[in-house]
Amino acid sequence: MSLVGKKAPIFNAPAVINGEEIVESFSLDQYIGKKEVIFFFYPKDFTFVCPTEILAFQEKLAEFEKRGVAIVGASTDTEESHLAWLSTPKNKGGIEGVTYPIVADTSKTIASNFGVLAGDWDYNEDGNLSFNGLPIAYRGTFLIDKTGTVRQETINDLPLGRNIDEMIRLVDALQYVEKHGEVCPANWEEGKEAMKATKAGVAEYLSNN
């Protein structure tokens, strides 16, 4: 079930901040009324596609920050695993240099509440609790506005990496809509023409494009 248009699930969990400090209680609530948030899940620490995405977000961090947007990552690994990976140089498969928070969802409840857990719990034929699927998160990405409402979500399967530039485009679109009250058509980018959400507005846009 999509979370778009709904409040993002609330959580408090350990996280690593600034690439070096473990905090025991991290929450997205700190951004409400202050910043939009890109909250993204990745499957596992010390893997292959994941570091390319995490480092790509870091490379574009200044672009998000100048738009007033916070980046927060999460996986089902422990905070100690996050810290070890953050302390490992990039030439050895690590993500050293990443400064935005990375949340430790060891209970898997955050991934489950956001609808990105790649499996679920069930009872087997002996009546014992078991897990069907993989106990890790899909590559879920959520754009959350300043009220704490999810405005966009994308969920990729495990082998499919994200396009970070597309997330910047979506941030630009959301901020344009909120500032100007217009809507953004297909393939809209910053600096391009938007349109009024009326029949006349659509007709005018189509005639000009």
Automatic annotation (TrEMBL):
UniProt-listed Pfam families: 1-cysPrx_C, AhpC-TSA
Protein name: Thioredoxin peroxidase
Keyword Oxidoreductase: yes
Domain of life: Bacteria
Function in brief: Thiol-specific peroxidase that catalyzes the reduction of hydrogen peroxide and organic hydroperoxides to water and alcohols, respectively. Plays a role in cell protection against oxidative stress by detoxifying peroxides.
InterPro entries: AhpC/TSA (IPR000866), Peroxiredoxin (IPR050217), Peroxiredoxin_AhpC-typ (IPR024706), Peroxiredoxin_C (IPR019479), Thioredoxin-like_sf (IPR036249), Thioredoxin_domain (IPR013766)
Domain Thioredoxin: 2-176
Coiled-coil region(s): none
Family (UniProt): Belongs to the peroxiredoxin family. AhpC/Prx1 subfamily.
Keywords on record: Oxidoreductase
